[in-house]
Amino acid sequence: MAIRVVLSDANELIPRTPRDYLVFLAVSGAIDLRWSPGIWAEVSRNLRAKFGFSSADIQVLENRLEVALPHSEVQPAPDDNYLAALSGADEKDEHVVAAALAVRADVLLTENISDFPREWLKDRKIELLNLGELLIRVGTTQPREFIWAHRQVIANSRKPEVEILSTLEQTVGADIIRTISSILNGSTGVRF
Fold first, then answer.
1. In the prediction, which pLDDT does 3 show?
2. In the chain, which residues fall in CATH 3.40.50.1010?
3. Bridge partners of residue 73, in order along the sequence
4. Is 14 helix (H, G, I), strand (E, B) or coil?
5. Cα maximum dimension of the chain
6. Which residues pair with 129 in a beta bridge?
7. What angle (nearest 5°) sits at the alpha carbon of residue 149, between those of residues 137 and 99?
8. Which of 6, 25, 65, 79 has the fewest CB atoms in 10 Å of its CB?
9. Which of 43, 42, 55, 52 lies closest to 14 in space, CA to CA?
10. Confidence class for position 189, pLDDT limits 50, 70, 90
11. Alpha carbon distance 174, 15 (integer Å)
């Protein structure tokens, strides 16, 4: 299945390293990254509670994302909300399903796979993936864009590459990191 539109759940946008990969993949044109106001509200709450972000910090991040990806926010329509309520998703995640419907997502991206109705989404041509699965799919189908995005993540961080990959490994696992290293074909200088 070709990936174009990716609706991201909040859990993929909260930690910086996964968010950076997603943003740079979107800037590269590999994916069209989307979220809703409800998803962004969840991101904001968690950045405050877990990472001590101030309202000003969150506004700076939101402004930067708006500059990089000016049309990423999607507002679900009442019909999308109605269908999402019938989907069988966890009640707290119905707004995420509604946003995926509204944007006609190819992928609903989340680490909470079990909270979503995989078959119901599949019937609507929405694939449920976690970050590791998405990175491998994009890396194998669009390696040039993936390598460019990876280099941008490195260039825009104060952390060394090995530390960024180690941080990413906490989300996606060691097997995915080994596959990513293979995709990068040694261009990173990092060996696992």
1. 80
2. 5-131
3. 35
4. coil
5. 50
6. 109
7. 60
8. 79
9. 43
10. very low
11. 18
